[in-house]
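Input sequence (69 aa), recorded before submission:
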Amino acid sequence: MVIGNNIVTLIGLLTTCGLMILGLLATYPASKAYEKGRRFVKWYIFSILLFPVALIASFAIKGKDQNSI
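Predicted structure, token format:
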């Protein structure tokens, strides 16, 4: 049996690769938020669920040591 000969195998392979890439990309907004004093795990879960929103929000938030005006 050749891998990828079945459509179900292809769908499973692409889903697995997509989830792995999403998990890798989700670390970037989480690490940016962690640098600004936020919790890494909360931001990691947030970026897995809503990656584009979390990416923009991680740049928009201010650090906890900065005064909010």
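Checked by second reader. The chain has four helices and no strands.
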